[in-house]
Amino acid sequence: MRRSFLSVLAGMLIGATMLGGGAHAAASGILAERSPHPVAVNGQPVEIEAYLIEGHNYYQLQDLGELLGFDVVWDGATGTVRITTPDAPAAESSAGTVLLPSDGSRYIPQAGDVIRCDDGTNYTITDVSRWDKNMFAAGPVGDLPEPTCDWSLLPQPELPAPEARHYSINGREYLFVRNLYETRRMLYTLYNAIGDNPETWQNGAPVLHPSGNPKVKINLSIADDLNPQVFWPWRESEIVNLFNSCPPGTYSMEAWDVYKDGVFQRTEYNIHVR
Questions:
Q1: Residue 87, pLDDT score
Q2: Exposure letters 186-205 (e unless 16+ CB within 10 A, then b)
Q3: In whole angstroms, what is the distance from residue 106 CA to residue 95 CA?
Q4: How far is CA 138 from the centre of its chain?
Q5: Is residue 180 a contact partner of residue 159, using CB atoms and an 8 Å limit?
Q6: DSSP 75
Q7: Which of 16, 138, 230, 255 is the most exposed place for a label (fewest CB within 10 A)?
Q8: Per-residue model confidence as pLDDT tens digits over 242-255
């Protein structure tokens, strides 16, 4: 199943250059026309836009993701298309523990995953039924934000290393896993807030201090001696409202997945400004 799924992905076209509206579209000198061929998924006909190019059908990756159940995310900061397949297991180390991704891609925990903690212990995840299903949230978190300004002109902080912290408190076993994917969500939301505020963005560029230094500095981790604001579930307004209340400053942010006795509890979002 895994191999056949990836073979399907290998033949797909993102389709960003395929413009709708006419019967034909020219892309890099290649003639494309809308495909007349019907598509069925598991025997059921579906509606999906397709293009016929030199005898081959091409589909937009996002459309196929919605039909086949895999996630497609455009990372505007790095210019990368990130795909997460529904049957993709987390990478494992030689010791059989999960290798948490260091590139900011999404780690989706599974029951039975074993996490190597900073104190040298192994922590087994037993229940992820609450994952992306917080009772206080309106629905799943969704894709990462898209750029509303030129992110390349803003500070580009490095992602911290993956981290798993284990605590034993009053007979309970807690695990905090640094969530780099959701940390990126916080960062990109802050980027767009900078671009939407005239105090920090004018004439298509960030506003600088008279000294030439940026008005906004960003860290993707929070020092232990700081007392951040913490919220969950995810709410974009928490970042935007905080920024608009005091635009210039140093923003430190991070996200953590919290487990208790093997059971996923929530993703916590932490932010500090000074």
A1: 56
A2: bbbbbbbbbbebeebbeeee
A3: 22
A4: 18
A5: yes
A6: E
A7: 138
A8: 999 999 999 999 99
Helices 236-245 and 180-196: crossing angle in degrees, nearest 10, is: 40
Quick one: which H or E segment has residue 40? strand 39-41
Query: Distance (Å, rounded) from C-alpha 100 to C-alpha 44?
Result: 37
Sequence-distant (≥ 6) Cβ neighbours of residue 98 within 8 angstroms: 90, 91, 92, 107, 113, 114, 115, 116
By residue count, the chain amounts to: 274
pLDDT for 56 equals 85
Tokens for 62? 């996002």
pLDDT less than 70: residues of the chain: 1-29, 74-78, 84, 86-90, 92-95, 138
**Unique residue bearing structure tokens 């196929």:** 64
Which residue intervals of 104-217 are DSSP H helices? 180-196
Place of tokens 């061929």: 37
Which residues are CB-neighbours of 15 under 8 A, at least 6 positions away?
51, 58, 59, 60, 61, 63
How many Cβ atoms sit within 10 Å of the Cβ of residue 111?
13
Distances from the Cα of 82 to the Cα of 75, 79, 85, 232, angstroms? 7, 10, 10, 25
- Ramachandran bin of 70, using left for φ above 0, alpha for ψ from -120 to 50, beta for the remaining angles: beta
